[in-house]
Amino acid sequence: MSINHPNFGQLADDRVIIFDTTLRDGEQSPGFSMNLAEKLRMAEALAELGVDVMEAGFPIASPGDFESVRAIAETIKGPVICGLARTGRADILRAAEAVAPAERKRIHIFLSTSPLHMKYKLRMEPDEVLQLAIDSVRLARQHTDDVEWSAEDGSRTEPDFLCRCVEAAIREGATTINIPDTVGYALPADMHRIFTMLRERVPGAEKVIFSTHNHNDLGLAVANTLAAVAAGARQIECTINGIGERAGNAALEEVVMAIRTRPDAVPCKPAIVTEHILRTSKLLSSITGFDVQPNKAIVGRNAFAHESGIHQDGVLKNAATYEIMTPESVGWSKSSLVMGKHSGRAAFRDKLRALGYGEVGDNQLNDAFRRFKDLADRKKVVYDEDIAALVEDEGRDHDRIRFVSLDVRAGSKAPPRAELELEVDGQVTQSDATGDGPVDAAFHAIQAIFPHEAKLLLYSVGAVTEGTDAQARVTVRLEENGKMVDGQGADTDTLVASVRAYVHALNKLLVKRARTEPAALSA
Prior knowledge:
- The protein contains 16 helices and 16 strands.
- It is of the alpha/beta class.
- Helix 10 crosses helix 14, helix 13 crosses helix 14 (384-394) and helix 15 packs parallel to helix 16 (494-513).
- The model has no long low-confidence stretch (mean pLDDT 90).
């Protein structure tokens, strides 16, 4: 069975389309907002990674979302650029306008179809929902020949009604039909049953691509995705590092490498350049300030680490004894370069490439190299983790507020006092403040320079490496009017790392202030 698709031509039976929604569903995660420059950087990396479809955002959500989708449509070549829309006319027209400049474009419409969502969220009867599906696809087809239709909460939708909606969407010209497990409720057997049913029962099913979009609330997003593919789905919706609403989405790196590693069980071919997976993962961590956990599959720092003596012996004799894929296949590489205070800029750049960061911009490189040299003067050994922390700390474009300097006096004889300099919108401002401790004093100084109403919900300190000279990595969580963000900072001085983390979080909060999320955004 091959499908003739407007953006993919005659799709081979074994071809699977990778639909990346890092910039849309992923960005809906608390604290994961990106500004325009960061979205463009991420979009370029996703294009280099080889994703087939890039869901660039939700254009009607805010002017910023519209501008970012429009900019990506104008500049990114290769992937299909997709904009999300609800069924309303304004949503669809806004999405059409945003993706219009793209060489290959798509409008993605979603509509709740489960009894629970229709009754309490939409407050509509099934026949009204069915008519909305018909009208929205018909309107979208007037603006592009590639329309995706999603049945939100599809895994909890009554089978007969799901078939009716899918049939109507196909009849009106939808080219991709997506069945999301919106709340991560399904088991793999459920997903296999749903896609098998749709392909067998719905007239015209052979004319469209079926897509699967799975959330990870029960930790089953990847398993559910593979079950859907086994039942005939040929588009996988996923995100880098599995980011997304609540517990996240199916992780692109895990799905792709499962398919690549087990062609006997999943005989499909994605077009992903797997050697770029690690660098893309690290870029996202750098932009958002959220590291992946050490034991994360594929991209966690322990993914290819072996501590057990038995395992080490086996790997030394034959790596395949305990490694089902090579580290190099996803972008990890072994480097013989030892970094220290005598290392030059070229060696530093090579080390960044070896760590999976790809090409780093000159400004980011210069800032990170300057801090590396300063760190090398203070530490006997500069570990890879130290360098990664520096790059991630400098690789942020949230630049309305920047750290300049900090001087703290603390002890038991007088109240702690912090003297702080920050650059705000290009102007350096100084303040000093006291507090219950040196960290509290530093945060009061930030408040004095940049007044705000955000509440501090979390302050956490960890070490990047071992030893008393290790860099501290600080996480700060701020909340303002229901908007929550996390910021991170690293430095051998815990107080400096604390201020960097707070400033990072504050900058992300400023981005959030500009966003006005529309009601009923999900899918």
